[in-house]
């Protein structure tokens, strides 16, 4: 496990550096005199982003967004649908939210499980960390998100870091159809927010689903409420498109 993680970290860094190189070259090459495009609440869609029907010379195809019939700005990531909440050109981040989440519906959950390793499995135009180059530290990474993990356990867990999911009115789908052998055991469901590594997963617990969030509202992982969990999911998460590396 440790070996696997290290390898994927190295691969991520490698892919990031390749992409930085490509993005920087592209930035240098492209002469982008295109008026910003607009969709719904996102009024400033400009280089490197483009909207699907923009003139071909505008933006880059790897940063193409689309505008759906409800005026949501849509980013397709791993062939899944995410809604764009905010594009920050000052720090090269884009904040997106799973299209399955409904703001006012506390029972809604993301449609797709997502964790930081998804981004190291395939080359992606986005990273889950910000790459910075400073004069003194060289290249440094800072993570833009942390995880929200749904777990199911065979025994009750008494830990301030584990929120009892049965107190939240959240329907995250029945992972175990009633005729499967595992359903003969009662399972206890928990939500854990924050950095979670293998040693944090208590014995007899199993990760069911993972999401990521950048919600700045509660930075105390031992004191989260059901409302916090909903807010984490509704806020979504930031990704970086790496141009910062070129500019600084
Ligand atoms: C839109 O984004 C561009 C960077 O691509 C920036 O120069 C411009 O100031 C932004 N405009 C607004 C209104 O935020
Ligand atoms: C989408 O935005 C356009 C332009 O602002 C507007 O004319 C249209 O009514 C909007 N559609 C919906 C479903 O809100
Ligand atoms: C990027 O900028 C936005 C808007 O100013 C801010 O909300 C967000 O926290 C910033 N992200 C980082 C990683 O600094
Ligand atoms: C709220 O979300 C749940 C779970 O996705 C869904 O079953 C329910 O229909 C939604 N309620 C409304 C009012 O949309
Ligand atoms: C992320 O990876 C997990 C497996 O590690 C997979 O189940 C999930 O569908 C992936 N998410 C997306 C959005 O592709
Ligand atoms: C459990 O039920 C589902 C649908 O009801 C069925 O497709 C599946 O084959 C069943 N599994 C077993 C192990 O009987
Ligand atoms: C996992 O987290 C614990 C504390 O939560 C920490 O002590 C430990 O060093 C971490 N392990 C790894 C491999 O990061
Ligand atoms: C936990 O959070 C609640 C509100 O979110 C706050 O009132 C309470 O003081 C916090 N408790 C601790 C021990 O930090």
UniProtKB/TrEMBL annotation:
It is found in: Membrane. It is a single-pass membrane protein. GO terms for molecular function: polysaccharide binding. It comes from the Eukaryota. Keywords: Signal. GO terms for cellular component: membrane. Residues 34-98 form the Wall-associated receptor kinase galacturonan-binding domain. This is Wall-associated receptor kinase galacturonan-binding domain-containing protein.
